[in-house]
Amino acid sequence: MAHISIEKNGSSTIQFRHPNGKRHTLRLGKVAKRLAEGVLFRVNEILAAIKTSQAISADTAAWLGGLTPSLHDRFARVGLATPRADAAAKEVTLDAFVCEYIEGRAKLRPNTIRNLQQSRRIVAKHFGKDRKIAGIGLGDADAYREALIASYSPVTVAREVKRARQFFKAAVRRGLIASNPFADVKGGSQVNSAKNFFVTRETAAAVLDACPDNEWRLIFSLSRFGGLRCPSETLQLRWQDINWDRDRILIRGGKTKQRIIPLFDEIRPFLERAFEEAGEGAVYVIARYRSDNTNLRTQLLRILDNASITVWPRPFHNLRASRETELANEFPIHVVCEWIGNSEEVARKHYLQVTEAHFQKATSNPTSHVRADGGKRRQTEKETAVSPAIAKNTAVLVPPRGVEPRFSG
To answer: Radius of gyration of the chain from Cα atoms?
Structure first.
């Protein structure tokens, strides 16, 4: 930790070791002891924040912002503050910077870029496209959060505050501003359990029967029983990714790295029929619905309406979540997350659900047992619903015609 030293001429200095290992001396000049101790307090807080990779408090950030240019430069030279932006940097608008920031992240996936652009528009609408980024302070950040609360759900507020913090953090790293006004703004939780919905096998069977063709049955089953992201992973699936001999499928094109999942029994009949219907030398498993103007979500809602099924929240997400919940009942969580393509933390926050089956299992026994009143109760396991679509599409596996799978995982 830092400590104060008084030189022979009466000048106060603060000596400390930076978390990077270097020793530094911050010269304050001849100041009152009380003022020197106040500076020492701020230095120790900044050092603790750097050491633990945490943001400094809003109070200390405001204190740094109020330092005289010369004293602020001394803090910057010893690694306790970010150099202040020059005059040119102060003219940069928030909207222009965020546009440049998004365009400069070339490795982002299209969906991520689209989401960041949406957040840019929300920020620009609130602050104005001509608002200088250097002129946005702590009070402005608090006001932005309050404006979000008045217009959006708690989950959206949490997400947009997080992205605003991300934008301003990048501005700090570019030297456009000295500190992040959103550093201590609490967005809240991005978990919305109210939108959780478990799609039972009975419901899935009814949807499969209502699908207009086999390709749609395959699209649905890949989400509900394979846990694929739709449309990104579903539309990227190729025939060469199917390892028929080892019952495995290579999944590519999602948010995460490539992964391998089992060729689940619930998917196989639709996959085999799709291959039988595929043209010679076909590359992609889903061919009919690959057009840019095809909205799979809209079509799924139409199918649900035709089947007289009430639309559940986040249709495709909850298909994946239902499958992950099922698998978590049978396999270790690290295996399930590897197949679904998310982390255990994300799975627990956004995917895994408590279902009616869990309650039934907790209060039932598959064998006869004596009740408290001396009677007996028998519990038989509920048979898994099998869609007629699955039954009539079940066929003997035919080796891929004219396509040699290169995937051997």
So the answer is: 29
